[in-house]
Amino acid sequence: MNESPILVQKVSRAYDGPPVVRDLSFAVKPGSIYGFLGRNGSGKTTTLRMLAGLIRPQAGEVRILGQDPFTIGAAERQWLGYMSEKAVVPAFTRVSSVLNLGRELYPTWDGTLADALIARYDLSRKKRFMTLSQGNQRLLSFIMAIAPRPRVLLLDEPAANLDVVARREILDDILDLIRDCGCTVLFSTHILSDVERVADEIGILAKGSLRVSETLDSLKDSIRQVRFFGFPNGIPAGDIPESFRAVRGKDEITITLRTNSVTTPETLARRWSCQQETRALNLEDIFVELSRN
Amino acid sequence: MFFLNPSSGVPLYVQLQQQLEQRILSGQLLHGAQLPSVRDLSAELHINPLTVVKVYQALEREGFVETKRGLGTYVAHESPALKIEARRRQIGPAVEQLVAEALHLGLGEKEIQALLSEKFRQFKSKS
Amino acid sequence: MNTPKQFWALFKFQSTINPFIYFFPLVFGVPLLIPLMHSSFGKDYHPSLDTLLMIQNLFFVGMIGAMLVSPEKYQFGGLNASTSYYGTEFLLTRAINRPVLYRARVTLWYLLVLILPLITVLHALNDPDLVVEEYATTVQQSCLTQVPGSTLLPSETKKHSTELISIPRGNVLVAEWQFWMFLLTAIATQVLLVLLHPIKYGKFIFWAFFFAMIFLPLIFIFDTIGKGTPSLYEALFFSFTSHQLLCWILTASALVLTQLGCERRFVTFEH
Asked: Which residue from A79, B15, B64, C72 has the highest number of Cβ atoms inside 10 Å of its Cβ?
């Protein structure tokens, strides 16, 4: 299957006011895990809700497995698993009723997996949804999303409200799903270490548009924080190409740099006849640097 | 078995590749030994299987391992030139850091060579 | 899963989703049962056709409709952002055909709304004949011409000789008419809920209608006290009784068309 299971093309969406998402485009490769990052209000949830078929884009289009998720019926929707960031399972419903509904609606429902997850997460079947702790509520939503063994999985902040152990377990469960079924996953999160552990591609959303969309490896390989010092003629003024952020000090300038074949710390140091000291950044550093602009 | 830090500035695949190369070069992984399957290794390390695929492919390109279809991935048989080249590459980053630091502190090549000789003497005398 | 299975699964799920949907029919259905006890008043005729016809609680059709069909749009405050009582977003993102969800909700709504009027009809079959006292001659005339089988009864005890009307199967007719009124209100509400959904302040417009429905019966009553002409209820009743078959046929068509049209609209709503 060459076509991307998750496709967003030039999508824009506003509520009452300025666009929350503007001209957004990205595609997720089959079988990969795409980590969707961004500060609060950057448009992550809006994008996910468009992909889940709850709202429509005002410009552009979204496609899940080649189709418009807003208009698909039961047969197509059984391949799309969605977990909302809110607790959306009805409050008075019992855990067992919700699981039953899953079994009745999905021909591909994996009862063994559901039972195993219920046991592992220690959820009581008799309890009503509203009496579960917030973490358990999310775990149940998660089970409802993956037990049907979907081909595309959309998770909005799956690890929110979960303790460290549960977070690792969810990530492992997601990885298992990928290994076993070749599922494609898109998940949004604040917890960057989770993304670093499992995602192979990253998208960083800021004010409704993508600042970055590439593999995590190439991102880490190419972004560097470089301190330039020892300038013979004073620090350079003006904009520096390929830099995300430049902080000027007394005799030095620290630049967060996107390196490529032409622009490297060494070439810049040579150009300015100065010395340089390079530091590799982890995802959290990169994210903060990008978000500061 | 392997120690990976996802929150480092070094990508996971680089970390895993370096550690695997190190073990092969130092003889911890014997020639002809079978490496764990992509599935098993990624499950054990709790990482994305695509990362393991990437590493195995890179190792095969560099001549460290060979993949036999349907059978698995095995450590390749010895190749002396490869070893030297690979070892040089392994120590590369440490050397670069040393040289950069030296220049920064204003120490010249001769002084660093003197320091290196001293250190080698110390290590040899210990063992 | 195929549609009947889906429908049944969703219907079962929705019916246990929230105890409040049963609370209101119980509370507001009680006044409907009071006319069932009119025979215990001790008289063998009913003092006024109007009070017999008066339905005070048509408004709960709208109340339950707003709760069941589009709660996120029409409810106030009580639903805060982090709790869901009706699971609309959850259900819409499961493997369902969206019209089937709408159908399941509407079916549950109609059942809740119509069950008490249905009980009234069944109860009326026990004691079908009605004798009612009516002084206004115009009303008497309308009644005699439009209600089949109705006749004037000579009074035995009073000076005015003609103020009692005998309506065979009268109680059943009244109960059927009330059932029909509930059904019509439900259909009209269904259309209103769907039409107002995309409008920004639709919520407020709907609840304005709702409060109008509560107060209208009272206005009608005050309006017709002392007047000699048939009240709105009586006029509606007489139209119903004189064209029963037509009414049922038209209503059934309206029901089907409304359902089809609203289903189609429902799938275009964003959540």
From this structure: B64
